[in-house]
Amino acid sequence: MKNLKLAGRGDHERTVIEVGDLRIGADLVVIAGPCSVESEEQTMIIARAVAKAGAKMLRGGAFKPRTSPYSFQGLGLKGLKILAKARAETGLPVITEVLDTRDVGWVTEYADVLQIGARNMQNFALLKEIGKVEKPVMLKRGMFSTYAEWLSCAEYIMDAGNPNVILCERGIRTFETYTRNTLDLSVIPSMKTLSHLPVFVDPTHGAGRVELIPPMALAAIAAGADGLIVEVHHDPSTAQSDKDQAMLPEQFERMMTMIERLAETLKEPVFNGRLDFVPWNLRKESTE
Ligand code: PEP
Ligand code: MN
Question: Which residue has the least CA distance to atom 4 on ligand 1?
Answer without folding.
Answer: 117
